[in-house]
Design a protein that fits this description.
Elements (H helix, E strand, L loop, with lengths): L1 E4 L5 E4 L28 H10 L3 E2 L7 E5 L10 E4 L7 H14 L3 H11 L2 E8 L11 H23 L10 H6 L5 E4 L5 E7 H28 L3 H6 L6 H11 L5 E6 L17 E3 L4 H14 L3 E13 L7 E9 L5 E6 L1 H12 L4 E8 L6 E10 L4 H13 L5 H5 L2
Parallel strand pairs: 13-15
Antiparallel strand pairs: 1-2, 3-4, 4-5, 6-8, 6-9, 7-8, 9-10, 11-12, 11-14, 12-13, 14-15
Helix pairs in contact: 1-3, 4-6, 4-8, 8-9
């Protein structure tokens, strides 16, 4: 038997002869072996992506094609002829040659354009003003700080697409993290810049929410620094600002002279209704850190506990002796947007929970989901009762019991 950790740190067993589940293929992996099909590429989109990623137009036949050269000294001697539209017979040939040249180039500017063509994506750019090492290198810690802060920020935005809250804790975390599965990352040397490519089909709500939340956070900080009041942060929750977002901004800015975030919409998929437009990067400085930290603490302390009725499987039981109250952990099936909760039960309720599990039934329980600890604990738990399920679900629960008997040694020892 081998062991793998769950997201909560517990270990479950997998038979050693069972094959490891293969990783999910990346959405652009099949496209990397050859350039995109010219017939599927809009010349206007290609031109917009070249301009976005620093390519320079150096003339060309007006109304027919443009000559583009890559950014930086490494682009000398290379140029692309890109048609402006498909009105001329040679447009497909020019597109094919340009795409082939991009696929053979090792330039990051070429790679980013190909990613934008392979998966129509909104682009999120982060910059950190930090010193670099020799020849533009970065220390491991600096690079890791940028990536970690960027992921925290994307996760905060994904959480805000699920619900509005000042503090999420464990709520909605699993589906929010799943929203990041298709996001692509392109890093620049030196640990100063990072780009995320968020697919439009699955990630547009996330990008829009992040755009709105960043501007709301900037306005709330400016208000706090001008007046000393934190009221603007209360209203900013509706725009997606949260404890998780302020923590991400602190992680991004800490140790720098400043940081910026910019969002650029996919040229192939303009934002519906025009309500969100391209704008200058949103900037944050070390002087913003006190306001961000105070706002994060405010969100953490003021998010209320929630009355809930939870249905879940008993997955762990523990108490210090053969009698008295004990602690029970449930895998949540319904009633709360968290994967697991813990609760303390009196002796009779503890016995009911143990018996329900032994016969393969989930339980239903009432209580208050406490914000303290990340909405992982149910306070004042009561009214516990087994819940009837169909035969297929009952068989699944019994199989789970047989695979995890060691979790219940303490539960079964005294009853």
């Amino acid at each position: 038997m081998t062991h793998r950790p769950t997201e909560d740190g517990d270990f479950v067993r997998r038979p050693i002869d069972q094959p490891v589940r293969p990783g999910r293929p990346h959405p652009v992996e099949p496209a990397w072996t050859q350039p995109p099909d010219p017939a599927q590429v809009d010349p206007a989109v290609l031109g917009a992506l070249l301009h976005r990623h620093g390519w320079q137009r150096r003339g060309g036949a007006a109304g027919r094609y443009g000559r583009w050269t890559p950014p930086g000294p490494g682009g000398r001697g290379m140029s692309l002829l890109v048609p402006e539209n498909r009105a001329f017979p040679d447009s497909d040939d020019l597109l094919g040659e340009a795409l082939m040249a991009l696929s053979r180039s090792g330039s990051p500017a070429a790679r980013d354009v190909l990613v934008g063509l392979a998966v129509p994506s909104d682009e999120i750019h982060w910059w950190r003003d930090v010193p670099t090492g020799p020849a533009g290198t970065a220390s491991w810690a600096v690079e890791d700080q940028l990536r970690s802060a960027a992921r925290q920020m994307l996760l905060a935005a994904a959480l805000a697409t699920r619900a509005r809250a000042g503090y999420y804790g464990a709520r909605h975390r699993r589906p929010a993290a799943a929203q990041l599965d298709g996001v692509l990352v392109g890093a620049a040397p030196g640990g100063r810049r990072l780009t995320a490519f968020v697919p439009v089909d699955t990630g547009r709500p996330l990008t829009v929410r992040l755009h709105q939340a960043l501007y709301a956070a900037r306005e709330a900080i400016d208000y706090q620094r001008a007046t000393g009041g934190m009221d603007a942060f209360d209203g900013a929750v509706e725009a997606g600002v949260s404890h998780e977002l302020t923590e991400a901004l602190v992680a991004l800015v800490r140790g720098t002279e400043g940081a910026r975030i910019a969002i650029e919409w996919a040229p192939a998929a303009p934002v519906a209704g025009g309500g969100v437009t391209p704008a200058e990067p949103v900037e944050f400085s070390p002087g913003d850190l006190p306001a961000l930290r105070e706002a994060g603490a405010r969100y953490l302390s003021e998010e209320p506990s929630m009355p809930v009725r939870i249905t879940g499987d008993v997955v762990r039981m523990r108490r210090s002796g053969p009698r008295g109250e004990g602690t029970v952990r449930l895998r949540v099936i319904a009633g709360a947007e968290v994967p697991h909760v813990r609760m303390t039960l009196d002796e009779e309720s503890y016995r009911i929970a143990g018996q329900a599990h032994l016969v393969g039934l989930p339980v239903r329980v009432y209580g208050r989901l406490e914000s303290r600890g990340g909405f992982r604990r149910l306070a004042d738990a009561g009214g516990i009762a087994p819940v009837q399920v169909d035969d297929a679900e009952r068989d699944r629960l019994m199989k789970s019991l047989q695979e995890n008997l060691d979790f219940f040694e303490e539960a079964c020892g005294g009853d």
